[in-house]
Amino acid sequence: MSEHDEVVLAAQGITKRFGGVKALDEAHLEVRAGQVTAVMGENGAGKSTLMKVLAGVYQDYEGRILRNGREAVFANPRQAQEHGVTIIHQELNLIPNLSVAENLFLGREFLDGLGLIDFRRMRREAAALLQRLDLDVDPRTRISTLRVGQQQILEIARALALHARVIIMDEPTSAISEREVDVLFGLIDSLRREGVAIVYISHKMDEVFRIADRITIMRDGRTVGSAPRAALSHDGVVRMMVGRDLKDFFVQTPTARGSEVLRVQEICLPHPDRVGDFLVKDISFSVARGEVLGLFGLMGAGRSELFETIFGLHARTASGQVFLEGREVRLSSCAEAIAAGLALVPEDRKRQGLMMDMSVAASISLASLAQVERFGFLSDRRERALAGDFGQRLRIRAVSHRQPVKHLSGGNQQKVVLAKWLATRPRVLLLDEPTRGIDVNAKNQIYRLIHELATAGLAIVVVSSELPEIIALAHRIIVLSEGRQTAEFSRAQATEESILKAALPRSLSSSRPPSSSGAATR
Ligand SMILES: Nc1ncnc2c1ncn2[C@@H]1O[C@H](COP(=O)(O)OP(=O)(O)OP(=O)(O)O)[C@@H](O)[C@H]1O
Ligand SMILES: [Mg+2]
Question: Which residue's CA lies nearest to atom 7 of ligand 1?
Fold first, then answer.
């Protein structure tokens, strides 16, 4: 057997329980050197749990792990690393108050001749890694000032710094843009040539079909299939994931433009460091009852900042006007925004959306306390009713309403964030990447729910970096590039090519034709 298809890591008959929940039920997986093994499955299928078993995060499981054919027991992630196995987790794990360089070499700091931390060498090595990943940040930058996408790339850089032979990537592209996906895929290619084995988890079918050598499919904690990519079709994979044919795909409802609900005028947000530069510049638009407005932009286009500004989170530095049903409102806090009828589902659920130790029910009712509070007490019954209602509508998979959010699978956590904001019964719903980490089946349910809400009279603005999603969802699309509005399309006019062209930064749009991106060629 050549070095380039040898099974270097295998899981055999892995069963893992969390209390009464069987998260894995005799799951198995084979990982080969020099290959990308993709693992697919619905939210809660057990993908992350299996990866954590392989990476030494969990020790209390049944079954065996084989590393290079020999049984291995990893007492902790560090031991797995010593055996050349490392994992990039689905949730970001960087330390916000440390610098980029410190995070990259955490626990493995370089020491100088006197035994002191050699910061210069760390910065130098960090800079080299960042360059390999095409990430334009100073190694001295504090993590807390970086956006989610940049942090995700740093997680990848950290795995590279470990020189691992098996790299597990749990949804590495959920928060990065097309251009960074290209960079990452280039990197995966070179790792593959060096004989590194990659395990790649993603809900994005086109990505998986572009990068994977083999695809393994999981359902309800079991491995239900595994085959070379060339032997599988999209439909076949979906069928194995959900255990039946998927009919009944989301079909968009026609626009029924009602009266205007939200109008913003000349919204500007200055760059915090660079004087005279803007993160958001002169954005104006309006949304009507029943309308879904799509905002498309690559990472760094100012999408999230625009939402934050409308929501009153940058009241001190931003300028521009916000009108609700024709009347100007001046929002200067989250509470004021909620009271005015706005809801913002943020992109970074761990930092802004959820308290991880809270129960599912408490998380859902958190932003709408007025509805569950009676006589100053939190009504448990009402809290449960609220959680039950939205839990069902969004099909949140949890053992009970009392389960802490941190024990849900990533996709189900995202659904809790959505439920929390829907429970505030808003007039305007701002959704920032609402289906990040959501499986194909649940995505459809969320699209349908968004349209139900619009039909019921909400005005909805959706930010997404997935072109097919924006085109499927939005009645009208505005494109942002470098903080500015560069185009507006009706649904009839919009094509992937035209949107992407408007989204590319000026410096790139001349040198890089849109057809070189995966999104545009599909
Ligand atoms: N620490 C935990 N405590 C209790 N239950 C857990 C814990 N971690 C995971 N689970 C449960 O195990 C099951 C599998 O979860 P897992 O995170 O592996 O799913 P996944 O396939 O990665 O899903 P996603 O695509 O949403 O990330 C889920 O039902 C989840 O609620
Ligand atoms: Mg997961």
Answer: 407
* Whole-number Å distance between alpha carbons of 50 and 166: 15
Q: Give, in order, the Cα–Cα distances in Å from 232 to each of 27, 81, 217, 443.
A: 20, 32, 11, 22
Angstrom CA distances, 84 to 17, 176, 223, 414, stand at 26, 26, 24, 32
Which ligand is nearest to the Cα of residue 22, counting in written order?
1
Mutate to test the pocket of ligand 1, among 15, 200, 395, 409 (most ligand atoms within 8 A of CB): 409
Domain ranges, ordered by start, for the chain: 7-242, 260-341+426-521
CATH of domain 260-341+426-521: 3.40.50.300
Radius of gyration over alpha carbons of the chain, in Å?
23
User: Which of 122-131, 157-166, 214-223, 512-521 shows the lowest mean pLDDT across its residues?
Assistant: 512-521
Considering only CA atoms, which of 195, 75, 90 is closest in space to residue 148? 90
Whether the Cβ atoms of residue 156 and residue 172 lie closer than 8 Å to each other: yes
Nearest residue (CA) to ligand 1, atom 19: 44
Closest residue CA from atom 28 of ligand 1? 44
7-242 adopts what CATH topology?
A: Rossmann fold (3.40.50)
Give the binding-site residues of ligand 1, using a 6 Å CB cut-off.
18, 21, 23, 41, 43-49, 90, 397, 407-412, 439
CA of 408 to the centre of ligand 1 (A): 5
pLDDT one-digit tens code per residue, 152-192: 788 888 888 888 899 999 988 776 777 778 888 988 998 99
Q: Are 480 and 283 in contact (CB under 8 A)?
A: yes
Model pLDDT for residues 334-375, shown as the tens digit of each residue: 888 988 999 998 876 665 666 777 888 888 877 776 555 555
For residue 41, give the ligand 1 atom closest to its CA.
21
Q: Do residues 338 and 370 lie in contact, with contact meaning Cβ atoms separated by under 8 Å? A: no
The pTM of this model reads 0.72
Backbone torsions φ then ψ of 377, nearest 5 degrees: -105, 150
Contact criterion met (CB below 8 Å) for 399 and 313: no
